[in-house]
Amino acid sequence: MQFGLFYELQLPRPWDEDSEYRLFQEALEQIELADKLGFDTVWCTEHHFMEEYAHLSAPEVFLAAVSQRTQRIRLGHGIIQLTTNPPARVAERVSTLDLISDGRVELGLGEAGSTTELHPFGVRFREKREIFDEAVRCLMPMFDCPKGFEFKGKHFEFPLRTVVPRPRQKPHPPLWVACSQYETIVRAGQIGMGALGFQFMNPGAAEAWVNAYYHAYTQNLEPLANYQTNPNIAMVSALMCAESEEEARRRAEGWDFFQFALVFYNKEGPFPPGTINFWEEYEKRRATSDHKILPRV
Question: In the chain, what are the domains?
């Protein structure tokens, strides 16, 4: 088992003019310390236009900074949105990051989860799975095709070109895909990518998900393209250490807010910019429910 960190760079209001600056600088300092302490991977999301919930919209830039402040920790895209990024640009950025980090990239891919993110890029929510699958087929040959590559599909058309640079890891960094539902973790196994999931279920359900993943991988493997499969599971889990349980629960509100904001954006968004204070909305709803932040362990 390996251990890592997961960053959304959430930033609940109120803000001042230095709030984002402090957020980014503190995250870099934390990851530099994690590298010295022996953590295995740092995972960074890609989200757009999601105030308070996630201010990490350019993970390739952030991870490049991380690469120069660390020595061994692996750099995980958790995930790159293939629906809102041209495949060639993904290949170029990932390969560059892999080169400057001496081959430390973990390549997580995903569809994006809400109209808040998809619509400004001209992507329809109902087509995101179709676009993702085609993007994978367009992307993967770009990592190792020195004589050039061309692609023509419904959503992407790429003329004959050689994509440079090529990554340090051959034939490409390990592949992962975002999973938040039972059906998507089964699909991750079917397409042969590592599963990036979240601890939104109890241990018994998690065991069932793991079994389903490996059954799909061993019995129904159908990769989307010619790539090296990665039969592994990574699970984001809440953990808080403090001098007392009361203090740990207070500090763990960040995890609770993360879950709330994710569901709120996906179910009720998009919202007119600046019209909702998400932290106040979170506190209001939490005060009227029996929701608990963390189980005692």
Answer: 4-173 (3.20.20.30), 243-297 (no CATH)
